[in-house]
Amino acid sequence: MKIVTNSEQETLDFARKFVLELKGGEVFLLEGNLGAGKSVFVRGVAMGLGVKKNITSPTFVIMKVYDVAKHDKIKKLVHIDAYRVEADDLFQIGLEEYLNDPETVVFIEWGEKVAKDLKKYKFKTIKIEHQDNLREINIQ
Ligand SMILES: Nc1ncnc2c1ncn2[C@@H]1O[C@H](COP(=O)(O)OP(=O)(O)OP(=O)(O)O)[C@@H](O)[C@H]1O
Ligand SMILES: [Mg+2]
């Protein structure tokens, strides 16, 4: 699936609708440079799932777990920023209990850093390329 957006709002709207594709248990690795829109995308997903708390960047917390209010199967949204950490750090703080858990969806920014350590799990990638306000979002 590939889509082009021209503003933050368009990315939020797309991510909000993307939630309709989710069944629970999905893990997404987000790839894209600084400022590509990875966090914006996850914020849109959070809106679509009815997460009440404000989604902030997990850069300093590494992993954030949000309660999902608006989905019949998904109960938790996990948002990770792997920019400054290794997969082992994530495993140490309990990531594995969430990976492919049917009641959870996981989004990992800078996911390419940990992809090789997640081989035993099922995951998809969301690649975002950007130029000015244009974002090309590729989900595979
Ligand atoms: N079409 C667009 N879609 C998403 N964001 C856009 C778009 N056009 C401009 N922006 C801006 O790009 C920035 C994206 O920031 P965001 O924090 O989501 O990036 P990021 O990929 O998470 O970066 P980092 O690696 O630093 O975490 C925001 O300031 C947003 O307003
Ligand atoms: Mg970010």
UniProtKB/TrEMBL annotation:
InterPro entries attached to this UniProt entry: P-loop_NTPase, T6A_TsaE
UniProt keyword Nucleotide-binding, yes or no: yes
Intracellular or extracellular location(s): Cytoplasm
Main location: cytoplasm
Keywords on record: ATP-binding, Cytoplasm, Magnesium, Metal-binding, Nucleotide-binding, Transferase, tRNA processing
GO cellular component terms listed in the entry, alphabetical order: cytoplasm
Domain of life: Bacteria
GO molecular function: ATP binding; metal ion binding; transferase activity
NCBIfam families: T6A_YjeE
Full protein name: tRNA threonylcarbamoyladenosine biosynthesis protein TsaE
Organism: Candidatus Falkowbacteria bacterium CG10_big_fil_rev_8_21_14_0_10_39_11
Lineage of source species: Bacteria, Candidatus Falkowiibacteriota
